[in-house]
Every structure is written in structure tokens, then in C-alpha cells.
Design a protein that fits this description.
Pathway: Polyol metabolism; myo-inositol degradation into D-glucuronate; D-glucuronate from myo-inositol: step 1/1. This protein has ten helices and two strands. It has helices at 53-66, 69-79, 89-95, 111-125, 130-138, 212-222, 229-237, 241-244, 255-273, 282-296, and strands spanning 86-87, 301-302.
Length: 303
């Protein structure tokens, strides 16, 4: 079944800091952080002029206008059915061979390369944390939502930084200015600090903008993975930069979130800074990762 998403009609032309701020590039192991991304620019610089910048900003414009509370609720209900297809984790990895993330200013390589770069960088520094290696491999698998068999959703409904819906959009979110055209921006039910939530309610009770993060979390959880809770937290919130890089929305997290956030901050550095044009030998590392998949997941998953 194909999900039809209405394209937007535009009325214009087309407190506390957490560890690991933007200046802190020291990793916990031996991974060497590059000074620039694949295009010779600083990482996550959304204003730097270059071949990727116009397309990335255009992406966020549409994303911020269309990601509403009602839209997210509808997507979670539809895709939470997991009735699209049954396939293995590795089969899903291979579907990403031709997917390029339009929201990413740092890389234009197929997504399977990014998955392996992330996983291998973590593996070298944390050799005994095999669950974290596998999390690196699968964290972006939800991007298969771009594939026809998953409804071929537009990029704005799949990738990009994530953020809570149902409460005010924090100014730390990249290209925040475009939220002014979001229907929820002026809705008094959704545009306050807490919105429909409460102090310390826990992120599990907060709806995030819809995309690959939340979808892969649903897939892993409903297919009874034996990965630890920190892995599911990483999968679900690795694109929530407003929290783990800027310290926003701390008023919504609970004690379990705080513990899992420590692992997410470790993971995020590898997710971000391992991006490069250097490709991984897939066939060489495949046996190791398939063994981890067998350890933590069933042979076939419902997607």
C-alpha cells in the first residue's frame, strides 16, 4: 500500500549544557577525528556555501513545515502495523545501497557506507561492546522508508534532525525559522514549553518528528530484539541533536533517559565524524556483523 502525503502549499517563494558540546571533539578511544568533512568544510555547518547547502536547506524548509503532531500520529499508527514485508537485517542493509541522505551536509555516499563506517569506528574503540557495534550498523536502517515497498516516502518524512512535536520548537533546531509556517507553531495546544507533555514525563511518552529513527525503533522493539535499552534509545534519538548537542528539552527527560543519554553521546561522535569517502570492504566485515544480527535479532523481521 502506498502512503499518500500531501505536499505543502507555501504562501511564499521558493539551560543546562550537557557533555560533548560542539567544540568538544575528543573521543573516548583511538578514533581520530577529521578536521573537515568530505567536502572540506566543518561538520554540520548548515550555512557553509557549497554544492550541498541549497538542497539541504530546501529539505529542512519542507520538513519543518510538514512535521506536525497530527502527521506524526498518523505515520506512527500506519507504520507501527509492520505489515509491509518480512526480511532480514542484512537484506535491509543492502536496500540502502542506492540511498543518499538529502539532509546531510557532510556526506553524499550511499547509506550502507555510512552504516559500516560508523560500526567499524566503534568496533575499534569498544571491542567488547558488540551490541554497540551492531547498533552502529543498524541505526539508520529506517531510511528504507524511501524505498517503493515501504511507501517511498519523501525525504522530508524520513531523514534529517528530529525534534519533539506537540510542544514548542526549540530555537536550537537547525533552520528553526521555517517552523513559522508549521500549523502547530501558532496552536496554543502545541506551542508552549511543555505543550501536551509534563515535567520529566520521559522521552518514551514524547512524540518525535516522524522518520527513520522512530521507524527503526518500532521495528526493533516489536520484533523482540535482545539489544539493551541503551541501543534502542540510540536508534530512536540519534538524530535528536537539539537534546544531545544543545541541551534542549531536558525538562522532558527522566532518569532512565539520562543514563541512556550517556551512551548516545558516545555513539553520536562516531556517527558524525566517521563519515568519509573511504569505503569499507563489505565482504570482509559481513561475517562478523551477520553473527551479531543472529545474536540479537530473529532471522526474519516484520517491517
Amino acid at each position: 500500500m502506498t502512503i499518500l502525503i500531501e505536499q505543502p502549499h507555501f504562501g511564499f517563494k521558493v539551560d543546562e549544557k550537557i557533555p560533548g558540546d560542539k567544540k568538544e571533539l575528543v573521543l573516548d578511544g583511538g578514533f581520530v577525528v577529521p578536521q573537515t568533512n568530505a567536502f572540506g568544510q566543518t561538520f554540520r555547518d548548515y550555512d557553509a556555501e557549497g554544492e550541498r547547502q541549497p538542497g539541504v536547506e530546501s529539505f529542512y524548509r519542507i520538513n519543518h513545515i510538514c512535521q506536525t503532531y497530527d502527521f506524526v500520529k498518523r505515520m506512527r499508527e500506519e507504520y507501527g502495523k509492520l505489515n509491509r514485508v518480512e526480511m532480514s537485517i542484512w537484506e535491509c542493509c543492502e536496500l540502502l545501497n542506492n540511498v543518499v541522505d538529502e539532509s546531510d551536509p557532510d556526506l553524499d555516499e550511499p547509506q550502507i557506507e555510512h552504516l559500516l563506517q560508523t560500526a567499524e569506528a566503534i568496533r575499534k574503540d569498544y571491542p567488547n561492546e558488540d551490541w554497540l557495534h551492531l547498533t552502529g550498523l543498524i541505526h539508520d536502517l529506517g531510511k528504507v522508508l524511501l524505498h517503493p515497498i515501504f511507501g517511498e516516502l519523501p525525504q522530508w518524512a524520513v531523514v534529517g534532525d528530529t525534534f519533539p512535536v506537540g510542544c514548542a520548537f526549540d530555537e536550537s533546531i537547525v533552520h528553526h525559522k521555517y517552523f513559522k509556517e508549521n500549523p502547530d507553531y501558532n496552536n496554543p495546544v502545541y506551542n508552549t514549553k511543555y505543550g501536551v507533555y509534563s515535567e520529566g514525563c520521559g522521552l518514551n511518552n514524547v512524540m518525535m518528528s516522524w522518520g527513520h529513527d522512530d521507524y527503526m525503533y518500532l521495528v526493533a522493539k516489536e520484533n523482540k530484539t535482545t539489544l539493551p535499552s541503551a541501543a534502542l534509545f540510540i536508534i530512536r534519538y540519534h538524530s535528536f541533536y537539539a537534546l544531545h548537542r544543545s541541551g534542549a528539552y531536558r525538562h522532558l527527560i527522566n532518569e532512565e533517559d539520562k543514563e541512556n543519554l550517556k551512551w548516545l553521546q558516545i555513539f553520536n561522535k562516531y556517527d558524525l565524524y566517521s563519515k568519509s569517502k573511504v569505503q569499507i570492504d563489505v565482504e570482509k566485515v559481513k561475517p562478523y556483523y551477520t553473527s551479531l544480527i543472529e545474536k540479537y535479532f530473529p532471522a526474519k523481521l516484520k517491517w
